[in-house]
Amino acid sequence: MTSPADEAQFSESTLPRQDYMARVLGYGVAAATTLAGFMEGFFGASALVVMLICLLYPHLVYMLSRPFKRRRGYTTRQLLIHGDALLCGLFLSYMQLPMPLVMLFLIMINTSFIIVGSFTAWAFCIISLVSGAAIGYLLFGYTKPPAVPDLVFMTAAIGVGIHLAISGFNSNRQARDLIHLKRKFQGQVSRFQALSHQVSKYVAPQIWESIFSGKRQVKLETQRKKLVVFFSDIVGFTSLSEQMEAEAFTELLNTYLTDMSRIALKYGGTIDKFIGDGIMIFFGDPRTKGTKRDALACVAMAIEMRRHMLKLRKQWAEHGMTAPLQIRMGINTGYVTVGNFGTESRMDYTIIGKEVNLAARLESEAEAGEILISHETFALIKDKIICRTRGTAQVKGFRDPVPLYQVVDYRRDLGANPSFINHDTEGFSLYLESDKVKDHEREKVAAALERAARKLRKQVDA
After folding, report:
1. Are 185 and 244 part of one and the same domain?
2. Residue 77 in contact with residue 84, Cβ under 8 Å?
C-alpha cells in the first residue's frame, strides 16, 4: 500500500495547492508590473484597482472553490483555468499594454496553459484568452499605447522569468514524483499478482478468473443451473493408508491428485474439492458449452482418468507398491444450486442438491475401474460413447430405483481398428494409445512389440 509520505508527494489533492501558488505568482507579476507602471506614470490611478484585484483574486478563488474541489476536483480546476484565461484577456485589453509587455505576458500565460497537460485543454484556454481580450477591446476600446518605460519592462521580464523558473521546477518535481509512484505501483502490482497466483491454488481456476476479471461478485448468492456432476475415489485407498508410511502415502496421494486435476482442467471441469482421495468436479459453471457437450467432456475426462490410472499403477509398481489400485467414478446430470455458501467472512463456492447426491451415490455403487452414469447423462452421450445397461439400484434418498449405465469406451475405440489397447497379467503389462505415439517413435514401438511377440510365440510353439 502507498504510504502517507507517497500520498503527500503527489496526489489529486496536491493539484489545488500547486494551482494556488502558480496563480499567486502569475497575478503577483501582473500586480508588480501595474505598480511599476503607476509609479512611472505609465498607468493611471485605475491601475491601483487592477493591482488590488490581482493581489486578492488568487486567495478569494482558493477559499471559495474549496468546497467544490472536494466533490468535483477536476471539473472545478478546469473551470478556474478557463476563468483565468478570460480574466487575463480582459487585463491585457483594459490596461492597453504595449506589444513588448503583451508578448511577455502571453509567454507566461501560454506556459501555464501548456502545463495543464493536454493539447485540447491548451487550445480551449487560448480560445478563452482571445475571447476575454476581444470582450475587453469591445468594452474599453483600443488606444495605441506609448513606448513602455524600462522599469516597467524590466519588472515584467524579471517576474515572468521567475514564474517560468518556478513553473519548470514544479513540473520537474511532479514528473519525478510520478516516476517514483509508477515504480512503486508496479512493485505493488507485481506483489499483488504473486499473491493472487498463490490464492488461486485454493480455488478452481475458472472461479478465480471470473472473480478477478470482474465477471463475478464475491457475495452470498446462488442460482439454479443444469450441471454435470462427477465424483471419484480410489478403491482400497483407505486400507493402503494404514500400511504405508505417512510421507510415502502423502507423495502418492499428491501425485494422483495432481495428475487427475490436470486431466480435469484439460476438459474444462471445475474442481469443487478434494475429499481425501476423492474428487468432486462439475461441468457447466462458470463456463458452459451446452449441457450435451459438457456431459461429453465429463465422460471423456472420466475415460482418460481411468486410462491414466493404469499408467500410475505401473509407475507405483516400479517403486515397490504392488497394490492394484483402481479408480471408480459416478456421473449425473441435472439441476443443482450453485454459488457462494457460508458467511460474508468465509465463503465456499460449491454445488448442492439431490442431483449432486445422486452422482455421489453412483460413485459408491461403481465397481473398481467402473464409470457409472445416470440415465440423464446416458441420453446425452450415447451417440459418442458405448455404454452397457447395469440394471437399477435402490439409492438412498430416492424413492424409485435408479437405472445405471456403465461407460465402456468411445465408439471409435471399439471398432476394428481401436487406438487404445491395454492388457495386464503376471509378467506382462501393455498400455498403448497408438494415436499419441509420436511419428519418429512408431517404428521403435512396432519393433519392440514384434520382438516380444516372437519370443512369446517361440515359447508357445515349444
Report:
1. no
2. no
| Same domain assignment for residues 24 and 151 | yes
Do 12 and 95 lie in one domain? The reply is: yes
Per-residue cell: 357: 447426491
Is the predicted pLDDT of residue 128 greater than 80, yes or no? yes
Which of the residue ranges 313-322, 363-372, 383-392 would you say has the lowest mean pLDDT? 313-322
Terminal CA-to-CA distance of the chain, rounded, Å? 81
Instruction: Let me know: does 135 contact 90? Beta carbons within 8 Å.
Output: yes
pLDDT, position 428: 66
In a domain, 266, yes or no: yes
Using pLDDT thresholds of 50, 70 and 90, give the confidence band for residue 425: low
* Owner of C-alpha cell 472461479: 207
Give every CB contact of residue 124 below 8 A, 6+ residues apart in sequence.
82
Q: Are 154 and 301 within one domain?
A: no
Distance (Å, rounded) from C-alpha 421 to C-alpha 430?
7
- Whether residues 186 and 223 share a domain: the answer is no
Residues 371, 306: contact at Cβ < 8 Å? yes
Q: 302 and 333 in contact (C-beta within 8 Å)?
A: no
Binning the chain into helix, strand and coil, the percentages to the nearest 5 are 60, 20, 20
CB 112 within 8 A of CB 170: no
Whether residue 399 lies inside any domain: the answer is yes
- In a shared domain, residues 35 and 113: yes
Q: Does residue 320 form part of some domain?
A: yes
pLDDT reported for residue 315:
82
Residues 181 and 236 in one domain: no
* Type of residue found at 154: M
Copy the grid coordinates of residue 390.
447395469
**Average pLDDT value for residue range 178-200:** 82
For the stretch 430-455, pLDDT in tens is: 656 666 678 888 888 788 888 888 87
Distance of CA 321 to the CA centre of its chain: 43
Dihedral over Cα of 176, 180, 182, 183: its sign: positive
Question: How confident is the model at residue 15, as a pLDDT?
Answer: 53
Number of domains in the chain: 2
Full residue range of the structural domain in which residue 319 is found: 219-418
Q: Which of 174, 190, 206 is a domain's end point?
A: 190
* Residues 6+ positions from 6 with CB-CB distance below 8 Å: 180, 181, 184
In a domain, 425, yes or no: no
Residue 125 has pLDDT above 80, yes or no: yes
Q: Which residues pair with 350 in a beta bridge?
A: 339
Residues 223, 186, single domain; the answer is no
Q: Average pLDDT in the 420-431 region?
A: 61
CA-wise closest residue to 308 among 377, 418, 234 = 234
